[in-house]
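Reposting from the mailing list since nobody answered there.

I have sequence plus structure tokens for a pair of proteins and want to know whether others read the tokens the same way I do. The first protein:
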Amino acid sequence: MITFLASLWAHLSASSLSDQASAATVLSLLVAAVALLLAIFGLVIPLFAICFSAWRYVSERQETLAREQFQLYHRLIADISRGQDEHGIDHKLVSQLAYIHELRNFPEYGALTRDLLHRLVGEWQVNSSGDAKNLPLEAAIAGTVSHLERRRRQWRR
């Protein structure tokens, strides 16, 4: 585009506009320059609209996923602490162990998870001491807390 305009300027300054051939050449060059500018704007504006739409879609999708992740995390914590699902059906030990292990996939809630799990172990020791089900759950909690601590230390480096 710049070279085209430079050649147009050179042509205008080198020739006199007295003859019709020169005027027609200048006019055709000017029309070509306007057409080129319109073509560039015709590509840039839709490209900008597509980029903006893609950015908006990605940001909305990230917000939706974060909201779903937040709800899943809180459902897991509630199911672990109650020992039941939302319908009041008791979880088997294996399900609770799996839920405790699944909490490792929420590093953004690592500090909260550690605090809640420690508090839950304390609650179990006071309310249902001697329950055989608590020993494997406490071991799973210790493993998950240890994993979250290692991950936190790795991120600090």
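The second protein, same order (residues first, tokens after):
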Amino acid sequence: MKKITTILSVLALSSLAFGAHVASNQQLVDSPIGMTTKGDSVGAGVPFEVRVNVIPKGPELGIFDENGNLYDTIVFDHGTKLAGKLPRSVVKKTVILQRADGYAFSADKNGQVGSTTYTGKFAVDSTLYDESKNTLTLEKLSSSTDTDNTVKTMKTELNFIKGDRNVSATDNQLRTEFNSVILAGTEAVGGQYVGTGTIQATLTVK
């Protein structure tokens, strides 16, 4: 049986930051402690910007989010936590394989649906990923406060729909939800933890 496989990939990253030594765009300066005089005011702010990038439509495959945006990088950002035993943390991302023109996978360039059927699946490719346990190991970036050369790590589960699924000639999407789950009680010292890899979506002709 002839087999044709198309693989699309994006970068997956999970990060955590702990402690005052980790850089942030927010400068934590003001405090309400000692504010007793009428008219005194303090606060906080964070920079923001608005962007949009527009690309041509075509039959090429890409990995998109639920709003039709093409992913550049999938970032599972668990935010900033306090060192010690962490609470359970879940970050969810919808991941969709589709053609840039939105037509069915089997369609020609004009959108006329064909008869080809497929199997489709998602997978994670990373030397830090344990497929048998669905876990990605995050490694702490070195900092000036480190006292030894031991690599500190923590784990996050990467949960998604595995295995082959039937894709009909009229289907125009293959989708799953990816959940990055840091379990309650995970131990972590101060620092930034990062794990990277590739999320792959594959279509194989039946």
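Reply #1 (J.P.):
I read it the same way you do. The chain has one domain: 5-20+51-205.
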